[in-house]
Write a structure and sequence with these properties.
Blueprint: H1 3-17, H2 21-34, H3 39-51, H4 55-68, H5 73-86
Helix pairs in contact: 1-2, 1-3, 2-3, 3-4, 3-5, 4-5
């Protein structure tokens, strides 16, 4: 994992904590462009989409995180939460 990737994910997390989800998504998008094979960007972007009520996009990202690592506990938990909210 490159430091640039980590910096972008951390920046996204900072925006998300302030409920600035569009800005968070922009940072996660940049991180995913740098390394689309790392799951954190997808998981975190999925959470941001969830918080915006965009459940289909959230599920798509969380599914991608689980495709990369089927044992990723955070993505499993987050996906279950989105599925419950979507009903």
């Amino acid at each position: 994992m490159s430091s640039e990737y980590s910096d972008l994910v951390n920046a996204g997390n900072s925006y998300a904590k302030k409920e600035e989800y569009d800005e968070a998504i922009d940072e996660y998008n940049k991180a995913i462009e740098i390394d689309p094979e790392l799951m954190d960007g997808y998981n975190n972007r999925g959470l941001a989409y969830h918080n915006k009520g965009q459940y289909d996009k959230a599920l798509s990202d969380l599914n991608k995180a689980l495709e990369i690592n089927p044992d990723y506990a955070d993505a499993k938990k987050n996906r279950e939460h989105v599925l419950k909210r979507k009903q």
